[in-house]
């Protein structure tokens, strides 16, 4: 008998081990998901009634690849048009619309030569048949004179071409700025094209301008007089073309009321009248001063001191009110930064390495001004018209003595009412530029899949899309660093794009048309025509199981007769009833939907209807060990409850379904394998080491699966009232009760044992585990919009000999959290270098959550040192920045108990909504705050940047040349299911803790508009 028991126990342990391995295998398959090369999707339930839908969210953009080719050593790519004026009018009329005109040539700059390809139909190399400069690298290429000419700029010169034939060639000589020797060796560093001007910045810091003549389609080289005698070195410059019948900047000038609003009309050689608008030159000097000049007169119309400081508002320094304020601020700044001379001397040398100013097409559109600093900071400003009082407009400030422009001419020409306000930019795109790098990262595009904006190349490529005068920033993570980018419009690629990766692959792509980009995350809506309640993903079959309820109008007499049958003894007076009326009843069903590979509408493969008055409460994919065959089976488990009034005893059903496909994968077969009615509702299900754990009424029961039946093997009289969630990690169970907080239970065959619980009353909404290496924490949300973190410490005296869960942190989120989901974190750079794969530092998980108010968030661990640094930063920022609606974080983020007795938990949380304001502060204030907390600005920015990169769950592929990506990250797509109702906004909330108990909460709420 003992031998038989020993064998039976060994067999059970072996079965449990196999079940754990199967569960681990399922997790790996689930992490692989739909296998779209490392793209993580978040599938959320959203909306109510006929507006109900599934929302597929992505943190990044993945273009659809049309074709790709190997292209090593690429430095830059450009596409250009060629408008042939000699063709017949009827043929040219078909290409009159600039949006529909196809590109003519693709210019590819390699390490030692240039390639030219025709793009009208297919890409065909014509390098040997054109007059382009192909013996060396190309720096820039574009169109002039209404697309009738192409200009190609290289290091020592430029060529003007009419299609494939060269019409003019120029050679550049640098202006004498500092010394004659530098003039001989200076070459072109950067190029900016605004028809009919081309601005050249030389490596010695000087400027040269190519001025075009539309009548002869030729250009001439000049050096603006204002820069000829100037000894100030220029670090970045760009041209801004204020196009349109009403150039916007004219509204901001002193004599704007005299302007008719019409641009100067120039007749081209083809007889077509071209509205040139106004052209401005934006220049930033190495000392940080930014100036805007009109072209070609080069009269300064706007200037800003210390542009690199990143102030909230940019005001012309020649205005009296601005001059006084700026001088005072300059004195304060000098006093502030003098003590920290070591770091400040480094930061003061930060200069602007790239500028871009552009106004996109749109009603009431306004220009954007972008600047990239050498430390990677991206400054983004949006222009607006400032209308001051009449008294202030009549008084003009005195001009600086070093400026030679007279006051009278200044008043007449300056853009007096022009202001810029700083716009927040996602910190992900921040990339420190190596010294001596001349790479231009910002690429303006006007129509790629109907969107317009800027594409940012580099090791962290990003899309800066402009919708309704708002910036939507979406990273692109699928291909790693991108070295070159341009647009492409031809027969085979309609309004698409071309980019070259750092690994030497040229890709021709289009943006997915099924995604909406006018959100903080790209989103795809899948209409369900009903209210979705919960969704589960089956990775092996690539299908989703969704609980959907649809209101159905039923005859009133049928509804009343059903109620009469259920409530025995209830009397109804037939004279007072209108049997001709109808009454809406919610009917539940579980739909099996499958996503389309092309991104089209998802298809419903099967539907599982519930019985009358039966509500589906939970749906999960579970792995159960068949004790008969000793094999693991993956089944769809559904828990239900009959809603029949408070006078009827509660009951529910547990349903198990198998999901299979036909031999040709054309159909999805769903068959019921088990159904059992239990006392009490079944709000939660989970698989535990091959067993099925069911929360039924005031207890949890563990069942084993025989292939045809569920047999109970253990139970626990918890929760005390009604379970709302079950979470499993190994053999540990986290149980949330609707009124009695959480319980921590363990399964050790053959029984379920209560380890500890929270004795305080708490109305739980959702629970989950938080894993940081070998440290396990318990996360719970309540109906008062709080989040609490508990931990189990039986050796601590405050835990009442292990019976009580101890509080690790608490935070008032401000939204009701209804769903948690664990996802693995990417290790930081320090962790990658200091630890080995498989160590505790790589076993770190974030907990993504959704709220009823329509937000997404995430909770993740952080090390102790970083937490202490950011906690000190938060204390400084509480008084350094203004708060929305006057909500001081020290009071607003405290735990809300709604009058109940509550003992405050440890102060182990910092608010990232507050931390995100640090980068928006002026540079001088950043240095001051960093010095006061005993650290450096670069250290703070590095910590903030690391945390942002850690929680980009789309970043699943490993790239050896990326400083943040590692092979321990996810390696393919994962479809994430969330239970989120009325999704209207996105929040990035990160609760971070270390193994010694420190936590960090990052929060930033955004509108999603789905």
TrEMBL record:
Residues 588-919 form the RSE1/DDB1/CPSF1 C-terminal domain. It holds the Pfam family Beta-prop_RSE1_2nd. GO terms for cellular component: nucleus. Residues 19-34 have a biased composition (Basic and acidic residues). Residues 63-511 form the RSE1/DDB1/CPSF1 second beta-propeller domain. Residues 1-34 are annotated as: Disordered. One of its GO terms (molecular function) is nucleic acid binding. This is Cleavage and polyadenylation specificity factor subunit 1. It comes from Solanum verrucosum.
């Amino acid at each position: 008998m003992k031998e038989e028991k020993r064998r039976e126990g060994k067999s059970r342990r072996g079965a449990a081990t196999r079940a754990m391995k199967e569960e681990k295998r399922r997790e790996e398959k689930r992490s692989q998901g739909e296998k779209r090369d490392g793209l993580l999707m978040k599938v959320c339930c959203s909306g109510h009634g006929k507006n109900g839908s599934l929302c597929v969210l992505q943190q990044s953009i993945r273009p659809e690849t049309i074709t790709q080719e190997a292209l090593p050593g690429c430095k830059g790519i450009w596409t250009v048009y060629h408008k042939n004026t000699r063709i017949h009018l009827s043929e040219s009329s078909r290409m009159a619309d600039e949006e529909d005109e196809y590109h003519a040539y693709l210019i590819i700059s390699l390490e030692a030569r240039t390639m030219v390809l025709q793009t009208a139909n297919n890409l065909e190399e014509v390098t040997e048949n054109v007059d382009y400069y192909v013996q060396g690298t190309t720096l820039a290429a574009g169109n002039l004179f209404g697309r009738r000419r192409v200009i190609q700029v290289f290091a020592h010169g430029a060529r003007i071409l009419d299609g494939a034939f060269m019409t003019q060639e120029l050679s550049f000589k640098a202006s004498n700025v500092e010394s004659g020797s530098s003039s001989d060796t200076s070459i072109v560093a950067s190029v900016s094209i605004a028809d009919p001007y081309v601005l050249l910045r030389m490596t010695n810091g000087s400027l040269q301008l190519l001025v075009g003549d539309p009548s002869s389609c030729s250009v001439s080289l000049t050096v603006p007089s204002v820069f000829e005698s100037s000894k100030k070195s220029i670090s970045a410059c760009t041209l801004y073309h204020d196009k349109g019948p009403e150039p916007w900047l004219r509204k901001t000038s002193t004599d704007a009321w005299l302007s008719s609003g019409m641009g100067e009309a120039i007749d081209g050689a083809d007889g077509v009248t071209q509205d040139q608008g106004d052209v401005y030159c934006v220049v930033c000097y190495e000392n940080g001063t930014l100036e805007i000049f009109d072209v070609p007169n080069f009269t300064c119309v706007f200037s800003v001191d210390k542009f690199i400081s990143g102030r909230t508002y940019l005001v012309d320094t020649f205005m009296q009110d601005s001059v006084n304020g700026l001088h005072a601020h300059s004195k304060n700044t000098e006093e502030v930064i003098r003590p920290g001379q070591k770091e400040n001397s480094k930061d003061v040398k930060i200069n602007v390495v790239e500028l871009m100013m552009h106004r996109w097409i749109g009603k009431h559109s306004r220009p954007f001004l972008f600047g990239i600093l050498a430390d990677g900071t991206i400054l983004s400003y949006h222009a607006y018209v400032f209308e001051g009082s009449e008294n202030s407009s009549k008084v003009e400030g005195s001009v600086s003595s070093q400026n030679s422009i007279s006051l009278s001419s200044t008043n007449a020409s300056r853009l007096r009412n022009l202001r810029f306000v700083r716009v927040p930019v996602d910190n992900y795109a921040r990339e420190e530029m190596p010294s001596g790098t001349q790479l231009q990262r910002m690429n303006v595009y006007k129509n790629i899949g109907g969107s317009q904006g800027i594409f940012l190349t580099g090791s962290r490529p990003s899309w800066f899309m402009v919708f309704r005068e708002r910036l939507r920033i979406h990273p692109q993570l699928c291909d790693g660093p991108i070295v070159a980018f341009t647009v492409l419009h031809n027969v085979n690629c309609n309004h698409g794009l071309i980019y070259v990766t750092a690994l030497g692959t040229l890709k021709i792509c289009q943006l997915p048309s099924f995604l909406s980009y006018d959100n903080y995350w790209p989103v795809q809506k899948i209409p369900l025509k009903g209210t979705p309640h919960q969704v589960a993903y089956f990775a092996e079959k690539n299908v989703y199981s969704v609980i959907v309820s649809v209101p159905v109008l039923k005859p009133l007499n049928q509804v009343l007769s059903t109620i009469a049958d259920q409530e025995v003894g209830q009397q109804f007076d037939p004279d007072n009833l209108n049997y001709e009326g109808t009454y809406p009843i919610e009917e539940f069903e579980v739909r099996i939907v499958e996503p389309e590979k092309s991104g089209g509408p998802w298809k419903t493969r099967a539907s599982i209807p519930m019985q009358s008055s039966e509500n589906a409460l939970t749906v999960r994919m579970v792995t159960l060990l068949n004790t008969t065959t000793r094999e693991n089976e993956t089944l769809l488990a559904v828990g239900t409850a009959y809603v029949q009034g408070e006078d009827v005893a509660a009951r529910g059903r547990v349903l198990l379904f198998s999901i299979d496909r036909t031999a040709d994968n054309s159909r999805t077969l769903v068959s019921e394998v088990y159904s059992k009615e239990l006392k009490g509702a079944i709000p939660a299900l989970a698989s535990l080491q091959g067993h099925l754990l069911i929360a039924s009424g005031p207890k949890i029961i563990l069942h084993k699966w025989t292939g045809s039946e569920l047999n109970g093997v253990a139970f626990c009289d918890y929760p005390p009232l009604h379970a709302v969630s079950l979470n499993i990690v190994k053999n540990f169970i986290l149980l949330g009760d609707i009124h009695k907080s959480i319980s921590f239970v363990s399964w050790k065959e053959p029984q379920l044992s209560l380890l500890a619980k929270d004795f305080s009353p708490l109305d739980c909404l959702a629970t989950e585990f938080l894993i940081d290496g070998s440290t396990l924490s318990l996360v719970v949300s309540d109906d008062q919009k709080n989040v609490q973190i508990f931990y189990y410490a039986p050796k601590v005296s405050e835990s009442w000999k292990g019976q009580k869960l101890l509080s690790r942190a608490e935070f008032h989120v401000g939204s009701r959290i209804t769903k948690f989901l664990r996802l693995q974190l990417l290790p930081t750079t320090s962790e990658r270098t200091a630890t080995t794969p498989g160590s505790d530092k790589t076993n770190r998980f974030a907990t993504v959550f959704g709220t009823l108010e329509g937000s997404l968030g995430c909770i993740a661990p952080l090390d102790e040192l970083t937490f202490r640094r950011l906690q000190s930063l938060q204390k400084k920022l509480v008084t350094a920045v203004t708060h929305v609606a006057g909500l001081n974080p020290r009071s607003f983020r405290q735990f809300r108990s709604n009058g109940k007795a509550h003992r405050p938990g440890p102060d182990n949380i910092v608010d990232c909504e507050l931390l995100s304001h640090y980068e928006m502060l002026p540079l001088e204030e950043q240095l001051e705050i960093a010095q006061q907390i005993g650290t450096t600005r670069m250290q703070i920015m590095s910590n903030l940047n690391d945390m942002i990169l850690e929680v980009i769950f789309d970043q699943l592929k490993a790239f050896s040349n990326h400083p943040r990506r590692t092979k321990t990250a996810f390696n393919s797509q994962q479809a994430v299911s969330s239970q989120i109702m009325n999704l209207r906004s996105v929040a990035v909330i990160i609760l971070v803790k270390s193994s010694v108990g420190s936590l960090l909460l990052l929060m930033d709420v955004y509108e999603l508009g789905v």
